[in-house]
Amino acid sequence: MNINHRTVYPFGAAKALAIFLIAVTLQACGTNTDSAKSAGNDSSASKAHDDHQMETRDNAIAALHLVEARVNEPAPGQRMSAGYFTLMNHGAEAITLTKIASDAADVQMHTTTLEASGTTMRPLDKITIAPNGQIVFQPGGNHLMIRNLSAEAKSLAMTMTFDNGGSLNTSFTVIPMDAWMNATR
What we know:
- The protein folds into two domains: about 15-60; about 65-185, Immunoglobulin-like (Sandwich), CATH 2.60.40.
- The chain is about 30% helix and about 40% strand.
- It has four helices and ten strands.
- It has helices at about 15-30, 35-40, 45-60, 175-185; strands at about 65-70, 80-90, 95-100, 105-115, 120-125, 125-130, 135, 145, 155-160, 165-175.
- Strands 1, 2, 3, 4, 5, 6, 7, 8, 9 and 10 form a ten-stranded mixed beta sheet that branches.
- A hairpin with a 4-residue loop joins strand 9 and strand 10 (about 165-175).
- The longest helix is centred in the first third of the chain and has 20 residues, at about 45-60.
- The protein is globular.
- The termini are far apart.
């Protein structure tokens, strides 16, 4: 057996040098912390970016003001009710409400529209609150459809989720049927 065997590559020195330089460059890309930092791949840079996003999200949520959050008690024998509220945005940027959910009932945002055949309720996927603006969920307009609310419930915990990834945990007061029926007269 010949232990002094050498392999001769079929290409010239220029090609070998080019392959060597590419390999060194690729290896340097994987270990150069300065280039990783400038590319945003450093864990501290990533954490700072995440912290900034969280602060921006928290500031947007802190600028919200929820008023008169209420749910009408369902009529006897009914499984469905409605919820209403006003949500004010005191911030400098618009924020979009994308979902309202509860562990204790099924909740869906709806809107009522006037059509040639009368009024129609349709699901509402999202609603944007302008800077220094507000959205109002009220009878005959935007509202919450609430299904499977417990007959004994006095309040309903809900989570409002926004397009920036933030959320607002709140509680809606359940208004007894005689109170909300007399208020509409």
